[in-house]
Amino acid sequence: MNQLTRLFLKITAILLFLTLISSRELLFAADGETLFKANCASCHKPLEAYVGPALKGARQREPSKDWVYKWVPNTTVMVNTDPYAMKLKSQFGNVVMTSFPDLKKEEIDAILDWADKYTKPGGTPEGPVTEPQSDNSILYGLLTLILAVIGFVLLQVNSNLKKLTDEKDGLKSPTPVPFYRNKAYLLLAIIVLFLFGGYFLVEGAMGLGRMKGYQPVQPIYYSHKVHAGDNQISCLYCHGNAQDSKHATVPAVNVCMNCHMAVKSYGGKPLVKEDGTAVNANGEIEKLYQYAGWNPSTKTYDKPGKPIEWVKIHNLPDFVYFNHSQHVKVGRVQCQTCHGEIQKMDEVKQFADLSMGWCVNCHRSTNVQFNDAQGHGNKFYSIYEKFHEDIKNNKYDSVTVEKIGGTECMKCHY
Question: Where is the Cytochrome c domain (predicted)?
Fold first, then answer.
């Protein structure tokens, strides 16, 4: 190994060391953000209350410094024994947080540290979670490119110095091969292209069919914010089949008319589309009457009605089995877990990517709601007597969906 090669290795080592030192804070932030998205994002936001409380400043609100370390892995016991946990449960509609026994103290700290440092994109201290704040892949890619250029330059310098040395010693040097014809360089370029091309090909293939953020224009501007948010209409009033069958189903026109036979005009806040266009709410009610064949003046159905051709937003592949009643009634999963803050949406969009990984992570972290000693709870799971006994004997403090077969392939694919 000549001196120039040693110098190149030293420079590379120094640059890598400086990179690690300078990006230390970014790495910890990324870890906290990744952990938050994987475990907490379905129920929490950093800056505002959601299904659960805002995470920013959570440690300052807790009764003791180590309270969170007891709470995260053992929520089912804490909500029945700890006064602060009971208060949280009462504040958030008696919804009990899922236990995360596998989260380490360092990971909990990373999540809360990230939440405490979180600010809304643009620098304002409030607002909902939007896109990720940082992505270190650009930083690493830039550093890799810089190191590659330095390596290439040093190799060229080494080649030229060797040529000068040979000429000084009277040795005949072979004619140098241009770098674009050098087999080593060409092989390296092919490997790099293969790796990058393979990565983006796999990423693109995995994303096929995923439609997170899909927000089609509907035939009637129906605001969930007005109905489910302002007027507090239960999701199950319109989507009653969600607790009784596989499909949630879209309500028939007659369900809408149950209210709008009496509600003929809108008197709430002005409705505005995301592009800033004002919505004529009363005109949208008129559209409903046209579909229903209803005459509000005579209060009669004086012409044939027709179905509203709603555009489907959430759609799973044909090879995936999903049962709404199993989740809503048996598993007691809140609608917002999969559909987002539907009560705050005017125009509904797909909240989650609905990928297999997203579903599996939920099954790994969501506790089964067993029947308790007083007979309150979910009797569907009474067949799992072994787990009841294990909980009584303190072998488990909770049982996740994964432990009852929730990650078996044939549960969702058959």
Answer: 27-119
